[in-house]
Amino acid sequence: MLQLTDITKVFRTEEVETVALNGVSLNVRPGEFVAVMGPSGCGKSTLLNVLGLLDNPTSGRYVLDGEEVGTLKERQRTRVRKGKIGFVFQSFNLIEELNVEQNVELPLRYLGVPARERKKRVEEILQRMAISHRSKHFPNQLSGGQQQRVAIARAVVSNPKLILADEPTGNLDSKNGLEVMQLLTQLNQEGTTIVMVTHSQRDANYASRIVEMLDGQITEGL
Amino acid sequence: MDKELTDGDLPVIGVCENVRYGSVHQDRTTDPVAFVILGEKYASWGDRLDILNVRLAQNSNKVELRHQIEDKLREMNGDAEVTVRFLDQQLENLYQEEFRFIRQVLVFSIICLVITLIGVFCLTLFETEYRRKEIGIRKVFGSTEEEILALLSRRYLVLLLISFVMAVPLAWYIGQQWLLSFAERTPIHWWLFPLALMAVGTITLATVVVQSWRTANENPINSIKNE
Ligand SMILES: Nc1ncnc2c1ncn2[C@@H]1O[C@H](COP(=O)(O)OP(=O)(O)O)[C@@H](O)[C@H]1O
Ligand SMILES: [Mg+2]
């Protein structure tokens, strides 16, 4: 599915230079469910952003689905990203001005899926996420657990091969967190590859492999 | 009539319809006018030959030529009063009111446009900042920069079209009313309106695009990061 080879990521500001990733190599096979763990600031989110083509690595090779993507321009990254990769964030990142339906529909719009087809697929996925009774609600009218279910619906509505989740249960209580983990597990069992960053050992146990990070390097689980 | 019937008759050598003279505010095309060529024979008619039209070559030094003409006329005419005026100046005097009015309209239009653009500028500045996170999210889920710019420009285009629809009949009516004060009228060409729309639209959109460019091109992870 994806291969990272000796990836580094350096953030430069005027005064400081932060090495967020320091020679990371990682291989994720199709259908895997990888949990990334490690202390705050060790580069987990940076790794996920590189994986998700939201940011280019400073150096190293990144092959996704047989295509070298580490050096792509923003325009091409957008092309690869949409349709192939779904994102779930700790803070949900729903658009406040759009209702549930419109939020979930977003990736399909940018893929150019016709309106009728969009409606059908949004309905299906909201049903699956058990949130279809709230399809006309706005994010601030929903609980955290419901918002994250909407966010997962948005991430998977375009049937991506890869789901990247950055602490998806971080803002949820244990009951809602459990629900989210069950949804992700279910998606993984249906064949979706998942890379998830988490702080919780319990959540990590849902994964088929645990990768430990420290100071921008992978220390375990390669 | 080539032959004089009585002494002093003038032969007609041509008829001309609708001679226009004077201000275009009045319609004088039905006034009877006769142009007479005073040859040698009528030199005794006296002082009527008191206007001489001189056409200057293009790009000639007008002030100098004017002096030369004045000198020449004085030389020829002796004591007679000589005034040399420029036709364009005379025309300008004739339409001073109009020129002033047009200048005022122009100045006010520019002021309106500038105020509008300042408004659009500030609104876009505010909007891109306010919607920064939304823009980031949209980009994460596959929106291109062009689609972001289109999203941000759309509402201004809609507003522009609404204003256009309201302004066209008004502008047409006022223009028509103004033109009614002239006997000679230029038509209000239909293409003036789309031309104005395109001009204003281009300036407005350029403002929006320049303003939102930075936000639209920003790496989305910066804008969606948790505070
Ligand atoms: N945009 C950025 N500019 C500068 N430094 C950054 C940026 N993003 C992350 N960092 C730094 O990179 C390191 C890793 O950050 P991050 O990947 O967010 O860690 P984690 O998600 O594991 O908590 C941190 O030291 C952080 O301060
Ligand atoms: Mg993080």
Walk me through this protein's architecture.
The complex is a heterodimer of chains A (222) and B (227). Chain A has 222 residues and is of the alpha/beta class. Helices cover 35% and strands 27% of the residues of chain A. Chain A has seven helices and ten strands. A six-stranded mixed beta sheet of chain A has the order 6-7-8-3-9-10, with helices on both faces. A four-stranded antiparallel beta sheet of chain A has the order 2-1-4-5, with helices on one face. In chain A, strand 9 and strand 10 form a beta hairpin. The radius of gyration of chain A is 17 Å and the shape is globular. Helix content of chain B is 59%, strand content 0%. The mean pLDDT of chain B is 83. The chains are: A alpha/beta (222), B mainly alpha (227).
How would a crystallographer describe the biggest sheet of chain A?
A: 6 strands, mixed
- Tell me the fraction of residues in β-strands of chain B, as a range: under 5%
Shape of chain B: elongated
Helix percentage of chain A: 25-40%
Are any ligands bound, and if so which? adenosine-5'-diphosphate, magnesium ion
Distance between the termini of chain B: 100 Å
What structural class results from the helix and strand content of chain A? alpha/beta
Low-confidence stretches of chain B: none
Q: What can be said about the biggest beta sheet of chain B? A: none
Low-confidence stretches of chain A: none
H/E topology pattern of chain B? HHHHHHH
Radius of gyration of chain B from CA coordinates: 32 Å
Name the structural class of chain B.
mainly alpha
